[in-house]
Write a structure and sequence with these properties.
Layout lengths: L4 H10 L7 E4 L2 H11 L3 E5 L12 E4 L2 H11 L3 E2 L2 E2 L3 E5 L5 E10 L4 E7 L6 H7 L4 E5 L8 H11 L6 H17 L2 E11 L5 E3 L3 E4 L8 H4 L9 H8 L3 E4 L4 E5 L2 H13 L6 E4 L6 H12 L6 E8 L4 H15 L5 E7 L2 H11 L4 E4 L2 H14 L4
Helix pairs in contact: 2-3, 5-6, 10-11, 11-12
The chain binds guanosine-5'-diphosphate and manganese (II) ion.
Subunit structure: Heterotetramer of two alpha and two beta subunits.
EC number: 6.2.1.5
GO molecular function: succinate-CoA ligase (ADP-forming) activity
C-alpha cells in the first residue's frame, strides 16, 4: 500500500525523523486557513500517489496569502499522470542548501534490504542512476544484523558527503531503516533529503510503500488507505477481495492461481500481446466470483479482448463457465473472450459454453492456442 507524502511524513515524525510541519487540506478555504496558520512563505503540495509532482506543477512556493489561494485553486482538482488531486499538503517553506537522495528497498535478488544514498537529489534520480551510477552509493544490509552506525558512515563516505555531515546523515539513515523495519515497509524513498543552511538534515519528501500483507499487524497504518487516491480498477478489485494488478496493455487476463496468471502473462507476451491486468480469481472460485471479476476487468476501458485461463483443480471449470454465462447476462460485454478450460469438469464447462452460444466467445484447448487467439483478437477483433 502506497502512502501519500504527508502520511509518510507523519509516519517519519513518529520515528523521530525531522520533517517540516504542515497540514492537509481538501478545499481552497482549508488550504488558505492552513497557510495562514503555518505562516508565509509556505509550500502547496499536491497529494497524489505518483512521483514527479514538482515537474507537473504540483509543488509551489507561496510567498503570501494571494499566492497560496492561487496555487491551492490551481492544484486542487489538477490531473497528474492520470491521478486527480483531492488533497494538498501545506507546509512551512524550508531553506535548502543541498538536496540529497536516500532510499531503502528490498533487493529480492540479494535477499536483503538495499540502502541507497546520493548527493544528487532533487527531481530525477533515475537519470542519476543511469548516467552517473557511481554517484549513487549502495549498501546491502544483513537483515539479522540490522543497520549499524558504520553502515551509515560507509554509505556517507561512498556518496561523497562532506565531513561534517557524515554523522548526521548516517543517523538519518539509521532512523529511516528503523522505520522501514518497524512499519514493515517495502520502500522508503526521500527525495530530496535536504541539508538546511544551518546544516540540519530534513526529509522534504516521503514516498513510503507498506507491505499490504502486514497491515493486519498495523491497524493505524491500515486506516491510512485512501480509496479515492487509488486507481479505480484496483480499488474496485480490492473491495471485492480480488487479487488484481493493473498493467499497461490491452488484454484482460483472468486465471486461477498466481503462478498460472504469471505464466499466462508470459505466453501472451510471447505472442506479441500486452496484458491489461493481472487477476487471480483464486482457488475454488464460484460463479459469482467470476461475474465480479469480469466486471472489474471490463471496467478498464483499455481492454480490447479477454483471456480466461483456468486450470481446474479445486476450481471447477463448469463453475467458471457458469460465471462467464452469468456475466454475459449481467453486463453484455462488447469485447471478445477466449476461454481455455482444462482440468476438473472441463468437459462440462466447455459443453455449458457451447450450449450457451455466447456471442464473441472462443474456446481453446491449450494455453498457447488461447494466447495466440486473444492477441489476434485484441489487434483485429477477428480470431486467428
Ligand atoms: P516531487 O516532484 O513529487 O518529487 O515533489 P518534492 O516534494 O520532491 O518537491 C520537488 C522539489 O520542489 C524539491 O526537490 C525542491 O526543490 C522543491 N521544494 C519542495 N519543498 C520546498 C520548500 O519547502 N522550499 C523550497 N525552496 N523548495 C521546495
Ligand atoms: Mn520528490
Amino acid at each position: 500500500m502506497d502512502l501519500l507524502e504527508y502520511q509518510g511524513k507523519q509516519l517519519f515524525a513518529r520515528h523521530g525523523i525531522p520533517v517540516p510541519s504542515g497540514k492537509p487540506a481538501a478545499t481552497v478555504e482549508a488550504a488558505v486557513a492552513a497557510a495562514d496558520e503555518i505562516g508565509y512563505p509556505c509550500v502547496v503540495k499536491a497529494q497524489v500517489l505518483i512521483g514527479g509532482r514538482g515537474k507537473a506543477g504540483g509543488v509551489k512556493l507561496a510567498k503570501d496569502r494571494a499566492e497560496a489561494t492561487q496555487y491551492a485553486t490551481d492544484i486542487l482538482g489538477m490531473d497528474i499522470k492520470g491521478f486527480t488531486v483531492h488533497e494538498v499538503w501545506i507546509e512551512g517553506a524550508s531553506e535548502i542548501a543541498e538536496e540529497y537522495y536516500a532510499s531503502i528497498v528490498f533487493d529480492r535478488a540479494a535477499k536483503a534490504p538495499l540502502v541507497m544514498l546520493s548527493t544528487q537529489g532533487g527531481m530525477d534520480i533515475e537519470e542519476v542512476a543511469e548516467k552517473t551510477p557511481e554517484a549513487l552509493a549502495r549498501l546491502h544490509v544483513d537483515p539479522l544484523l540490522g543497520f549499524q552506525d558504520f553502515h551509515g558512515r560507509k554509505l556517507a563516505f561512498a556518496a561523497g558527503i562532506p565531513a561534517d555531515l557524515i554523522r548526521p546523515v548516517g543517523a538519518m539513515l539509521t532512523k529511516l531503516y528503523a522505520t522501514f523495519v518497524a512499519e514493515e515497509a517495502m520502500l522508503i524513498e526521500v527525495n530530496p533529503l535536504i541539508i538546511t543552511p544551518a546544516r540540519e538534515v530534513v526529509a522534504l519528501d516521503a514516498k513510503v510503500t507498506l507491505d499490504g500483507n502486514s497491515l493486519y499487524r498495523h491497524p493505524d497504518n491500515a486506516a491510512l488507505r485512501d480509496p479515492s487516491a487509488e486507481d479505480p480498477q484496483e480499488q474496485m478489485a480490492h473491495e471485492r477481495g480480488l487479487t488484481y494488478v493493473k498493467l499497461d496493455g490491452d488484454i484482460g487476463i483472468l486465471g486461477n492461481g498466481a503462478g498460472l496468471v504469471m505464466s499466462t502473462l508470459d505466453v501472451v507476451g510471447l505472442h506479441g500481446g500486452e496484458a491489461a491486468n493481472f487477476l487471480d480469481a483464486g482457488g475454488g472460485s464460484k460463479s459469482d466470483a467470476i461475474v465480479s471479476a469480469v466486471e472489474v476487468i471490463l471496467s478498464d476501458p483499455k481492454v480490447r479482448a479477454v483471456l480466461f485461463n483456468i486450470f481446474g483443480g479445486i476450481t471447477r471449470c463448469d463453475e467458471v463457465a457458469k460465471g462467464l454465462i452469468e456475466a454475459y447476462g449481467v453486463i453484455q460485454p462488447t469485447v471478445p473472450f477466449v476461454v481455455r478450460l482444462d482440468g476438473t469438469n472441463d468437459v462440462e464447462g466447455r459443453k455449458l459454453l457451447a450450449d450457451a452460444n455466447l456471442p464473441n466467445v472462443a474456446t481453446a484447448t491449450t494455453m498457447n492456442e488461447a494466447a495466440e487467439k486473444v492477441v489476434e483478437l485484441a489487434k483485429t477483433g477477428v480470431p486467428a
